[in-house]
Amino acid sequence: MSVTQRTDSGVHALRAGAQIDLPPFRTKFISPESIQTLLNVWLTKEAKNLRILEVTQVPDIFNVKYSTIEKVYMYRVAIAKPENKVKYIAPISEVYRTLFLSENNFCPEKVQKATELLVGEKDFASFIGRFSKNKRHSICKISSFVFEKSQPFMANNDALSDMFNYYQFTCFGNRFLYKMMRRMVGVLLSTGCDKIRIEDIHHMFNHPAPTSWPCRAFVAPAYGLYLANVFYNPDHLVITNEEMEAKLNLIQIKTAANSQSLVQNNEHNYYGLKMFDKKIENICAQLNTELEAL
């Protein structure tokens, strides 16, 4: 089984893809709906924090990693309100799901302005934690990067939620490098907190390299990041009639081969049992001869 990469360890996944190749053991076709139902029943029974939203049959050309054309990441941030900056308590429903900050001079307008600098096809070598000699490897296309006000998970049931202003980053991109999303969020928040300047972001793109990372910027922790959705190449999701017929023929061939093997195994087992019975008869006859001699 192969799964969609989440880029960083510890990141949540709201929607992710997985691919599994099932061998044609039987002629009866198991519908995707039946597979989805059975998997969800097992996941619920085993108390797994996972649910299957959709199961579909794909052609051989499909690859859950390399057929991806766009990913959507979301990052949640909560900024303590001015009257709560000295002492605040994070709501239990948001712990390890949202990044909480206490900053006296946080400016959302600066974050919004800095976000626009990250949109487009650019070299993001300054946003990766590992140095790579392959320059093409660090070229990514960010089609959209939105910073907007958000809501707590339990706005009406948790009084502690009123102590914060909630924000959300939503980023669409064709590919993401190691820790790239977390570093982008860290740079944007550092800009909004006056730890770095807009000019520092320009410098990162004008001199793309890990050494261009601003020393006062921070890497946002993984627990605030969510893989929200994954989009695949539509041409890699369509299975043609020719492929379907070929798969059905393969099932019939393997079924016939399995049946022939079963017959041969049964014949072999029958011959083995006959030989075993013959040995038992010889042993019994020998024992009778020895008893008569006594």
TrEMBL record:
Record's keyword annotation contains Isomerase: yes
Residues of the Pseudouridine synthase I TruA alpha/beta domain: 114-233
EC primary class: isomerase
Annotated GO MF terms: RNA binding; tRNA pseudouridine(38-40) synthase activity
Entries under Gene3D superfamilies matching the protein: Pseudouridine synthase I, catalytic domain, C-terminal subdomain, Pseudouridine synthase I, catalytic domain, N-terminal subdomain
Enzyme Commission number: 5.4.99.12
Reactions this protein catalyses: uridine(38/39/40) in tRNA = pseudouridine(38/39/40) in tRNA
Keywords: Isomerase, tRNA processing
GO biological process: tRNA pseudouridine synthesis
InterPro entries, A to Z: PsdUridine_synth_cat_dom_sf, PsdUridine_synth_TruA, PsdUridine_synth_TruA_a/b_dom, PsdUridine_synth_TruA_C, TruA/RsuA/RluB/E/F_N
Family: Belongs to the tRNA pseudouridine synthase TruA family.
Protein name stated in the entry: tRNA pseudouridine synthase
Organism this protein belongs to: Polyplax serrata (Common mouse louse)
